[in-house]
Design a protein that fits this description.
Immunoglobulin-like, 5-stranded mixed β-sheet, 4-stranded mixed β-sheet, 3 helices, globular
């Protein structure tokens, strides 16, 4: 599963909310994020972020173990930052769907219902399929990976001439001296 949680932060004394300790819950796609949140009993109204690349839930500490039992992967803040930056960049690729992740990882992208085939893949991107997804059922889910920093648009075609273009960005995993991203 491609949902992620970072470490817990104690906001006691800084926030007026009932839950003072929480982490962030994110996913490779908003569809998967909302499915995971529903399994955890979170209201969709609690979704934060409004720009498609920054959507997340603030997950109270008592729910973090349940998210991990569902398959959420524990990651650090650097991973979250690279993932967010990559998702933001993927939206600029003018595709139907956008996904981003740190270089050297893989991400899952649910496609609309249909019998899809791959028609074009930019060099350096690896494409596979997930047969059944624990949260999304047996709908088509493509798994995209890249060993290093890459970006491009992958085109999928279904019967009837329907196409879907997925913009993907795999962001640099390190920053060179001086702090500028590669």
């Amino acid at each position: 599963m491609a949902c992620y949680v970072d470490r817990l932060i104690d906001y006691t004394g800084r926030v007026p909310y009932r839950h003072k300790v929480w982490c962030h819950l994110v996913a490779d796609s908003d569809q998967e994020l909302l499915a995971c949140a529903a399994e955890l009993g979170l209201s969709e109204a609690w979704l934060q972020g409004s720009r498609s690349w920054d959507t997340h839930f603030d997950l109270p500490a008592p729910l973090r173990p349940a998210a991990m039992q569902l398959g959420a992967v524990e990651v650090d803040f650097r991973f979250m930052g690279r993932r967010t930056r990559a998702r933001r960049s993927a939206l600029k690729l003018d595709a139907d769907l956008a996904a981003g992740a740190p270089a050297g990882t893989a991400m899952e992208v649910p496609l609309p219902p249909g019998d899809w085939g791959v028609t074009s893949v930019p060099p350096g991107l690896e494409v596979g399929w997930r047969a059944e997804h624990p949260l999304l059922g047996d709908g088509p889910v493509v798994v995209v990976g890249a060993a290093d920093e890459r970006h491009g648009v992958i085109t999928f075609a279904a019967s009837g001439g329907v196409e879907t273009r997925v913009g993907v960005v795999f962001a640099a995993t390190t920053r060179p001296p001086g702090g500028a991203s590669r």
